[in-house]
Amino acid sequence: MANTYKNVKIDLNTTNNTVLYTCPAKTTAIIKSILISEDSNNASTITVSLTAGASVFSMFFEKAISAKQTVELLDSPVVINTAEIIKAQAGNADRLHVIASILEIT
Q: Which of 6, 36, 37, 80 is deepest in the core (most CB within 10 A)?
């Protein structure tokens, strides 16, 4: 068994639903933190979802992010399994950055 700490980051420069992280094969991942930062001095919203096969589960739906604010979305860790996907979608393009801290267990 190996533990690997990593971070993933995206600049949400569109309003498309964007993959933040996909859990690799033979891996369980613990999402420790999801930070959202607004850097355009304009409020926006973010939607974060977990895709498991054909099912999509909402983690945060249109969560308000104030101008120049950084928000930690998670109060506690979230476990995801092989092939599950975390996606993020901004309400407005070119306003939000996302950084997730992840522990992968193989």
A: 36
